Request: fold
Amino acid sequence: MASKQPKRSNETQFSRQDAIDFALMAQDIANIKTKVNSIDETLKDDYVKKEEFNPVKNLVYGFVVLIVVAVIGAILALVVVRPGEPTQLTTSVQTQSK
Reply:
């Protein structure tokens, strides 16, 4: 007669596998917490907060707007000529013909 081996129930097998899975998940969660803490420290030390950056951003935008307005004004001054005023081109032609 063949000897009968005790059958392992699926519940015991699943509970062992579940215990292994839970241990691995706990280890993964601990690793994630460690990484999040290191990222938090890096963000606190190495990066500027939005509240601290806004004045700098506004200053730079102000300078850019000032430069753009100056360039547009210079281009308009070259294109638009007041009636009765000689342009630079006509004055240079007149001085060369003399």
